[in-house]
Amino acid sequence: MGFSTNRGGTQTTLAEINVTPLVDVMLVLLVVFMISAPLMQQGVQVDLPKANATTLSEVPDQITLVVNRSRQILMNGKELPQGTLRARLEAISSAKPNVEVFIQADQSVAYGYIAQVMAEVKRARINRVGLVTEPGDANARI
Q1: Residue 95 pLDDT greater than 80, yes or no
Q2: What distance in Å separates the CA atoms of residue 90 and residue 97, rounded to the nearest whole number?
Q3: Most C-beta atoms within 10 A of its C-beta, which of 76, 91, 104, 129?
Q4: What number is the average pLDDT over the span 61-71?
């Protein structure tokens, strides 16, 4: 603790905080999080198609359906047995009427199958359905 002398000759304490150790700790934490963040991402590998569209803000009442190459459907990361999609979606839509469904489908899956999945979502009385894509080349033309 440092002391300084004022004009009256009495000593007072200096109230300065050394921020160098704080900055050092923050930089170490930043490096640790930068290294560990990619390692914490787990999931099913899906090759998403690319499209030029704005990103959507995350909504708490949302369901993510993943359709992988082998046409398995995963709801929020959990595999669904075949034929149970509509029943599960109906139960969710009755509890949360404003629920949104986002479909992440591998681009190698036939369009007809994705259309069937979307139809099942509509039959479950869910009107807010979206397809998830990766950002594509802004200069690409169809």
Answers
A1: yes
A2: 10
A3: 104
A4: 89
CATH of 50-135, one of 2.40.30.60, 3.40.50.150, 3.30.420.270, 3.40.50.2300: 3.30.420.270
Contact present, 54 and 135 (Cβ < 8 Å): no
Burial call 29-57: b when 16+ CB within 10 Å, e when fewer: eeeeeeeeeeeeeeeeebeeeeeeeeeee
Number of neighbours of residue 82 by Cβ within 10 angstroms: 9
Beta-sheet pairing, 73-75 with 78-79: antiparallel
Structure token digits, residue 16: 């300065």
State how far the Cα of 139 lies from the Cα of 124, in Å rounded to an integer: 38
Instruction: Give tens-digit pLDDT for 67-88.
Output: 999 989 999 888 888 888 999 9
Task: Please list, in sequence order, all residues whose beta carbon lies within 8 angstroms of the beta carbon of residue 46, skipping any fewer than 6 positions away.
Answer: 66, 67, 68, 104, 105, 106
